[in-house]
From TrEMBL:
It comes from Rhodoferax mekongensis. It comes from the Bacteria. Residues 37-132 form the Thiamine pyrophosphate enzyme N-terminal TPP-binding domain. Belongs to the TPP enzyme family. The keyword Hydrolase applies. SUPFAM superfamilies: DHS-like NAD/FAD-binding domain, Thiamin diphosphate-binding fold (THDP-binding). It is an enzyme of class 3 (hydrolase). InterPro entries: DHS-like_NAD/FAD-binding_dom, Myo_inos_IolD, THDP-binding, Thiamin_PyroP_enz_cen_dom, Thiamin_PyroP_enz_TPP-bd_dom, TPP-bd_CS, TPP_enz, TPP_enzyme_TPP-bd. Keywords: Hydrolase, Thiamine pyrophosphate. Pfam families: TPP_enzyme_C, TPP_enzyme_M, TPP_enzyme_N. GO terms for molecular function: 3D-(3,5/4)-trihydroxycyclohexane-1,2-dione hydrolase activity. This is 3D-(3,5/4)-trihydroxycyclohexane-1,2-dione acylhydrolase (Decyclizing).
């Protein structure tokens, strides 16, 4: 006979989450859900809120200041845990729910798990239309939460309490599936949240979560071996799948055994230590010049755990002459661009492929050249990030990155192990991709799948929740800071110290450069170009703003002051904000062609010239 408890939908859901445990890659057992971020409203406070209060010791509840921000924090938490742990996010109906949609898209594009639990309108429809209800003239069962359908891996609207018995395990199955992993949404009508049912005791004691590692198909493995054995100048592209599979050591062993150089996408950076002799560094549109040169000459590109985004492939022009082998747990990614697919877990796939290759190795001259180029680029990074300041010239991102990095040495620490750098949008991703040095997996945390402005500070909070033992450093431009900064106050409230370095270049400098490179005049990007009739020049005191939210803050005058301020910030216990004026006109060399469509017709000769370059670039694309 089945033993049951009389529980509401919300109580059963929360108790199940609180009881869930996961076996981590190191064999330790941890709670699968690290807590619930919520902003209460009329659509979730009475039902779901009551259940959270009852289980607050087993499942922590965190209050945030913005629904999108708290979802970004939850997503960053999962990314910092290499997708092995999650956080849940609860909102009211209406704007609380739709504020999550952008964050859901961030998780969807980046293949990251997050459990979204927005409140919904009344299933009974008795009080319709309720406050904040979006009414459809054509579909009576439509609500604002239907916006989540295209940006989640799994969506369900719970209309009877017992449906949670199947809906929640399905959602968790998606989030723990290495191939299908992504955001899930369970919409919870506010009346159904409070309805009771006889919940089986077994639902309240779920089985331990253990992640599967799919092995390669024997025939696909044979084809992959045959392809690699034809290569003289192979190149490995390490993607995020290497990190999520905890395959960094297997990648290092493969590269060393077979003499294959490695380049890193944004998602894969930190898979291999920055100073490994075979690590050429960043690849692609914002890649290191040395890495991109070898990429153009490679005869086989071995893509491991990457979805081959256009920034990685130079809009599919960078590897145009190479044959492609893709090892990926997701067949959708492994089969892109008519390459040879090896569908498997990255760690298992690398080990199986290496064993099957035996003594095969890349041409020794190619390996030696790659090692030489890696050393040359590392020396150049040191030169760029430690350059003496030029009198009267604003610093640029490279010099800021160097000061942030080296400040830990001044504070007596090891910058290669301790710091986690967080970023998402603007010029900084390109500079960090090329210049940040990470010796430990996850010490480079870049949201560059959706490149969502505003992710940075909230993401820093999520990383700090996941990795409290590390210094979490958010590097953010003034534009992204203005987009979303409220979770800075949350970090202070929760006692989760982060260091935020704001680079103020007076507007959207990255897009202004793209605009002028496309032949258009500077327009509507830099703040000084946007003053309306009767308006005034923008004057934003970021340091003062940060202090108003409880953080310690200072506006430094130069790179030397920034470095000194960073030493003090490291010793502090409260969140710190350091602001420095920078220029958007200087950038680090490197990169490659990127497809940005240019108008065929224009009155500007500069646009026509840019269009001609665009047409020429398309001739190099892989077809």
């Amino acid at each position: 006979m089945t033993t049951t408890q009389r529980l509401t939908l919300s109580q059963a859901l929360v108790k199940h989450l609180a009881a869930l445990k996961v076996e981590m890659h190191d064999g330790s057992i941890q709670p699968y859900c690290g807590g619930v971020f919520t902003i209460f409203g009329h659509g979730n406070v009475a039902g779901f809120g009551e259940a959270l209060w009852a289980e607050r010791q087993a499942l922590p509840t965190y209050r945030a200041h913005n629904e999108q921000g708290m979802a970004h924090a939850a997503i960053a938490y999962s990314k910092a845990h290499m997708r092995q742990r999650i956080m849940a996010v609860s909102t009211s109906i209406g704007p609380g729910a739709t504020n999550l949609v952008t964050a859901a898209a961030v998780a969807h594009v980046n293949r990251l798990p997050v459990l979204l639990l927005p409140g919904d309108t009344f299933a009974s429809r008795a009080p319709d239309p309720v406050l904040q209800q979006v009414e459809s003239f054509q579909q009576g069962d439509l609500s604002a939460n239907d916006c989540f359908r295209p940006v989640t891996r799994f969506f369900d609207r719970i209309t009877r309490p017992e449906q949670i018995l199947t809906a929640l395990p399905r959602a968790i199955q998606i989030m723990t599936d290495p191939a299908a992993c992504g955001p899930v949404c369970l919409a919870l009508p506010q009346d159904i949240q409070t309805h009771a049912f006889d919940c089986p005791e077994s639902f309240l004691h779920p089985e331990l979560i253990q992640f599967r590692r799919p092995p390669p198909d024997a025939r696909e493995l044979q084809k992959a071996v045959a392809l690699l054995k034809t290569a003289k100048q192979p190149l490995i592209v390490a993607g995020g799948g290497v990190l999520y599979s905890h395959a960094g050591e297997a990648l290092r062993a493969f590269a060393e055994a077979h003499g294959v150089p490695v380049v890193e996408s944004h998602g894969g950076k930190s898979s291999l230590a920055w100073d490994h002799p075979l690590n050429l560094g960043a690849i692609g549109v914002d890649g290191a010049p040395n890495a991109n040169v070898l990429a153009r000459e490679a005869d086989v590109v071995f893509a491991v755990g990457t979805r081959l985004q256009d920034f990685t492939t130079g809009s599919h022009a960078l590897f145009a002459n190479a044959r492609l082998l893709s090892l990926n747990v997701q067949s959708f990614d492994a089969s892109k661009w008519s390459g040879t697919a090896l569908v498997a877990d990255a760690l298992v796939g690398l080990q199986a492929l290496s064993a099957a290759l035996g003594t095969w190795a890349a041409d020794s001259a190619w390996t030696a050249r790659a090692q030489q180029q890696a050393a040359l680029w590392n020396a150049r990074v040191t030169e760029l990030t430690t350059a003496a300041p030029q009198p009267g010239v604003l610093p640029y991102d490279a010099e800021v990155i160097g000061a942030v990095r080296d400040s830990l040495n001044d504070a007596g620490g090891d910058s290669g192990v301790h710091d986690v750098a967080i970023c998402a949008a603007g010029t900084l991703p390109a500079e960090l991709h090329k210049l940040w040095r990470a010796s430990r997996p996850g010490n480079y945390h870049m949201e560059y799948g959706y490149s969502c402005m505003g992710y940075e500070i909230a993401g820093g909070l999520g990383v700090k929740l996941a990795r409290p033992e590390q210094e979490v450093i958010v590097l953010v431009g003034d534009g992204s800071y203005m987009m979303m900064n409220s979770e800075l106050a949350t970090s202070v409230m929760l006692g989760k110290k982060i260091i935020v370095v704001v680079l103020d270049n007076r507007g959207y400098g990255c897009i202004q450069r793209l605009q002028t490179a496309s032949g258009s005049p500077a327009f509507n990007n830099l703040l000084d170009d946007c003053i309306g009739e009767g308006g005034e020049a923008s004057s934003i005191d970021f340091a003062l703003h940060a202090r108003s939210m409880g953080a310690d803050s200072v506006h430094v005058a130069n790179v030397a002051e920034l470095k000194a301020a960073m030493v003090k910030a490291r010793a502090a216990t409260r969140s710190q904000v350091l602001v420095i004026d920078t220029t958007h006109t200087r950038t680090t060399e490197g990169g490659c062609w990127w497809e940005v469509a240019i108008p065929e017709v224009s009155a500007r000769s500069e646009v026509l010239d840019a269009h001609a370059r665009y047409v020429a670039g398309k001739q190099e694309q892989r077809v």
